[in-house]
């Protein structure tokens, strides 16, 4: 039975596109309805495959943005200027289309179970997407749950509605410009920001870090310098070593 379930998750299936809407100036939210979907864990991802008429295929992985109790699957796709997959998903895809999908995939970067300590989530840019499926758990966690989210500006904040409705304590670090009337600091996350805006190491929190490779590498290094145990830090990286958000 277990092997059959794994085969189903790793088999490609056509999913109906239920809706496509703009989330931010640079990101779109896709609502998909796969015919064979048994649910997912918060933090898992799916693979999307596009096939051209000449048989050429391109495949990308996207974190699931929706919580497990919501029907179907929601993804948030950030449009990359030279991204052959992201430009199609955010510019050509329409409700009623079908797209190939497989998943859910991944069991490492997921909501901790059991939740026996505070949970600290740290996101860089679109690295916040897997946390959108986790924040709904904050109210029932029974422990402090916090999110430090590094975003370029207020317009680039992904999942604002989910974050505001959740029981998560959210701190947004604006790296380029704050919203109107903002009097807080502007700048990239560093060791000082981490120390001031995250659960202290002596509370032994579960720490989840997601974002561009350069962001994750820097943040995990500072966390260990602050005394966090490496074995209690889980990281998910995407992209190259380019500039962090």
Mind explaining what this structure looks like?
- The chain is α/β, with parallel strands linked by helices and 245 residues long.
- The chain is built from six helices and eleven strands.
- It has two domains: 13-105, Beta Barrel (Elongation Factor Tu (Ef-tu), domain 3); 119-237, Rossmann fold, CATH 3.40.50.
- It has helices at residues 2-9, 84-91, 129-132, 160-165, 191-197, 213-225, and strands at residues 13-24, 27-33, 45-51, 57-63, 73-78, 98-105, 119-124, 145-151, 169-174, 206-212, 233-238.
- The strands form two sheets. A six-stranded antiparallel beta sheet has the order 4-3-6-1-2-5, covered by helices on one side. Strands 9-8-7-10-11 form a five-stranded parallel beta sheet.
- The radius of gyration is 18 Å and the shape is globular.
- The mean pLDDT is 91.
Question: Which features would summarize this protein structure in a list?
Answer:
32% strand, 245 residues, 19% helix, Elongation Factor Tu (Ef-tu), domain 3, 5-stranded parallel β-sheet, alpha/beta, Rossmann fold, 11 strands
Counting DSSP E segments of at least 2 residues, the number of strands comes to 11
CATH architecture of the largest domain: 3-Layer(aba) Sandwich
- Terminus-to-terminus distance: 43 Å
Strands side by side in the biggest sheet: 4-3-6-1-2-5
CATH class of the largest domain: Alpha Beta
Low-confidence stretches: none
Shape: globular
Q: Tell me the CATH superfamily of the largest domain.
A: Nucleotide-binding domain of ferredoxin-NADP reductase (FNR) module
* Radius of gyration from the alpha-carbon trace, in angstroms: 18 Å
């Amino acid at each position: 039975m277990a092997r059959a379930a794994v085969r189903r998750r790793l088999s490609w299936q056509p999913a109906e596109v239920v809706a496509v809407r703009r989330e931010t100036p640079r990101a779109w939210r896709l609502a998909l309805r796969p015919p064979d979907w048994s649910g997912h864990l918060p933090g898992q991802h799916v693979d999307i495959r596009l096939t051209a008429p000449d048989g050429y295929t391109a495949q990308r992985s996207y974190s699931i943005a929706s919580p497990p109790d919501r029907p179907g699957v929601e993804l948030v796709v950030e449009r990359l200027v030279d991204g052959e997959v992201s430009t199609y998903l955010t510019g050509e895809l329409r409700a009623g289309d079908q797209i190939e999908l497989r998943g859910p995939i991944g069991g490492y970067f997921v909501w901790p179970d059991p939740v026996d300590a505070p949970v600290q989530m740290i996101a860089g840019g679109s690295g916040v997407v897997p946390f959108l499926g986790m924040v709904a758990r904050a109210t029932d966690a029974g422990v402090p749950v916090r999110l430090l989210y590094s975003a370029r500006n207020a317009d680039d904040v992904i999942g604002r509605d989910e974050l505001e409705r959740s029981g998560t304590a959210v701190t947004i670090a604006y790296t380029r410009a704050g919203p109107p009337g903002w009097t807080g600091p502007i700048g990239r996350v560093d060791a000082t920001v981490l120390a001031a805006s995250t659960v202290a190491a002596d509370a032994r929190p579960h720490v989840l870090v997601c974002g561009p490779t350069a962001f994750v590498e820097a943040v995990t290094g500072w966390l260990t310098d602050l005394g966090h145990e490496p074995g209690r830090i889980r990281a998910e990286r995407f992209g190259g070593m380019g500039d962090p958000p």
